Amino acid sequence: MNTNAPQNRGLTAIDGAMVLIVVLLIVQIWLLSATLESYLAGHREAAVPGAIISAILFAACLGLYRFVDRIDSEVRH
Amino acid sequence: MNWLRKPSSTPLWRDEFSVFTADERYVNRRQFTKFLTLTSFGMLAGNLWILARSLFHRAPSFPRTPVAATDELAVGGVKLFAYPTADDPCILVRTASDSFVAYSQKCTHLSCAVYYAKEQNRLECPCHQGFFAIADGSVLQGPPQRALPRVSLERKGGQLLAVGMEGEGA
After folding, report:
1. Which of A18, B12, B57, B102 is close enough to B92 for a disulfide, judged by CB 3.0 to 4.6 Å?
2. What's the domain range around B105?
3. Residue B109: count of CB within 10 angstroms of its CB
4. How far is A16 from chain B (nearest CA, A)?
5. ipTM (interface pTM)
């Protein structure tokens, strides 16, 4: 198996991006539960930073998805 | 999410259902990545919902409501009532001859009704063994993370009045 083939290199890049997305998603799930817990405890001031950080994490996930899509189209077409 | 795709001469259906095994590995990964990104959007939507609830939160009003007569309960006696609305069950406990405390009856874990355990002098949730101090409603044991909201009481003549709520979520 030739690991230097463009097909495999593309797969490695995509796998790396997927791992990053999973890590970001875990952080985002934790953030949502922490913000909800805080809100239910009556601390409403946590809602704004929670939403901003969650938006940043989503933007990073979206960027990584676009990266995966670009690699996919470059390698296969 | 067609707007996310780069312009391509290959139609979408051919892209998504490739007959080549090598291409299929890419398609599977791309679709899984799309699923993860949509999940991320779901998390963002949850955070935005909390933000909207926070921004449009209205401070609840607390009417002055008679709860019980001071001579109605013996020491260690309990009375259930609803405050500030009929959907908010509360529990009043006479802890000493001249001391009364009242808390929301909803456990802060999963909203089971707490009751007064006289022998242990604490409020207990029967669902998951969450225990709360009778003095201030703080958590003594169990899965609840937050103290019970406390009902502010005022004595007027021989009557006890509920005048507000203290603590989280109040």
Report:
1. B102
2. 65-166
3. 18
4. 11
5. 0.89
